[in-house]
Amino acid sequence: MGEFELTFINQKSVKGQIITDWLADNPLNGGDLVDLDFPDECIYYIETRPPISECPWYTDIINYIMDHTYPEGATPQQRRRLRIIIAKYVIIEKVLYRKAFDGILLRCVDTKESKKILHESHSGMCGGHFGGHATTRKIHRMGYFWPTLEHDVVEFVRRCHKCQEFSHEIHMPAQALQPIATPWPFSTWGLDLIGKFSPSSTDGHNFIITATEYFTKWVEAMPLTTVPGSVIAKFILNQIICRYGVSANHYLR
């Protein structure tokens, strides 16, 4: 072949062979062997990025922590807010965590994973169909976080079919009434607060506080307009302690 002068001319690509022709014109210079079990390893690949609307809520936080870059088109106020909230987050082994007030690190999750956590913590293996606030605290103890956690939990519990069907029923088993034993008169008292009444009395009273002595069933009562702790303490002092004394075993139930 050395006696001939060869000239290579690229022809127009045939439909369906564009990638093949491009690879033929751009051979790999590396001498690494190709794995026969996975021949396409480390060879050209196509990377796609999801739209901004589908990115996790913490994308801007990770980008700023890793590269100190702001979101495209961010205003000065948005940049300042991002710098402030960064102090609450930390990346450990490529995983983003939020620092809780008690020092616990909560793993940040995206929308898809948060839905699974909601289901498992409320009605799944880890759930018990508790209310919104109890389920929110449970998720925090499990170590997860996303910005709309409390709102999402309340809405999820509100839409739970089983909660709507059975939450109004009494689930405690019926038990026989047990009398409260008391050794002597005026040793044990029980306090009850009744109200709020509507309409109120002519003197503006909306509540009634009662104290029942368990041995003799003697009752002391007083109407109230409000029920702050100081008023309750004054009632106990004037109506019970000053009139009947304090025994060695005196306590209120």
UniProtKB/TrEMBL annotation:
SUPFAM superfamilies on file: Ribonuclease H-like
Domain of life (superkingdom): Eukaryota
Gene3D superfamilies: 1.10.340.70, Ribonuclease H-like superfamily/Ribonuclease H
Integrase zinc-binding domain location: 109-167
InterPro entries assigned: Integrase_H2C2, RNaseH-like_sf, RNaseH_sf
Single GO MF descriptor: nucleic acid binding
Pfam family name, one: Integrase_H2C2
Protein known as: Integrase zinc-binding domain-containing protein
